[in-house]
Amino acid sequence: MKKNLFILLVFLTGWSQAQIRQQLVNSKPALKAKEFKMEQDSMEVDTVHQKQFMVIDDKVMEAIDLDEVFLVGPFKFKNREERRRYLILQKKTRHVWPYAILASERLTQLNERLNKIESKSKRRKYTKIVQEYIEDEFTEELKKLTKTEGQILVKLMYRQTGTTTFDIVKELKSGWRAFWYNTTASLFNISLKEEFKPEEVEEDFLIEHILRRNFQKKLLEEKKPAIDIDFLKAVGKWQ
After folding, report:
1. CA gyration radius, the chain
2. Rounded-to-integer distance, Cα 144 and Cα 99, Å
3. Lower Cβ count inside 10 Å, N or C end of the chain?
4. Which class for 67: exposed (0-12), middle (13-18), buried (19 or more C-beta within 10 A)?
């Protein structure tokens, strides 16, 4: 099974609980919140330079559009067992996240390259070269993945690519090969057809919560998902 997981990774080569907008204004101590007035007609637009200005206490200031900030608070555990489950899932998610990033990046690179190669033989040759490179670099680490980590990896691959591992293998190789890999993995309770749906599956929500918390803490490299995730909806359902 671990060997199959590695092969799968090789073939892959190739919105929130609180949404806030803040305006941070550094001003004199005498400036009170009640003095902070901004009427509709106080906003003017420089049509030449496409800049917006607002008047605050007779002072003209350039308006700055701030990026949306997603803040994910700590998970609210109902009991000790729920906390334990979360921490174990967090450890495993942190472990496989780098491989999920690698998978999505390599898949993008592989597809971009293959789209430029017309010859089938040259396409196969290029795929094999990339496969051998990944094999030399990551084989030993991938062999250490547990069954649970393998399934989390499959889900995160879908998060980052928008395609199930089964379909990716089917596209790169053949339908029969994808069927065989899925059948073999199912013996270990791993489905290569697994998708990532935080709004519908509680474990997926926990994984997404873990990712976002770790992104905020700069403990994991943040990568945008290739799929739409309504995290606010998920929080409302599961918390």
Report:
1. 24
2. 13
3. C
4. exposed
From first to last of its 239 residues, the chain has per-residue pLDDT tens of: 555 555 555 555 443 333 333 443 344 443 344 443 444 444 444 444 455 555 555 555 555 555 555 567 777 888 999 999 999 999 999 999 998 898 788 877 877 887 888 888 888 888 777 667 666 666 677 777 888 998 999 999 999 999 998 888 787 676 777 777 777 787 777 888 999 999 999 999 999 999 999 999 999 999 999 999 999 999 999 98
Structure token pair of residue 171: 């596209």
Residue type, 76: K
SS3 state of residue 60? strand
> Is 75 among the domain residues?
no
Q: How many domains, in total, are found in the chain?
A: 1
Provide the β-strand partners of residue 52.
Answer: 45
* Residue 31 maps to a domain: no
State the Cα angle at 231 between 145 and 17, rounded to 5°: 115
Structure tokens at 225: 């998902």
Q: Please enumerate in sequence order all residues whose Cβ is within 8 A of that of 237, keeping only pairs 6 or more positions apart, or say none.
A: 199, 205
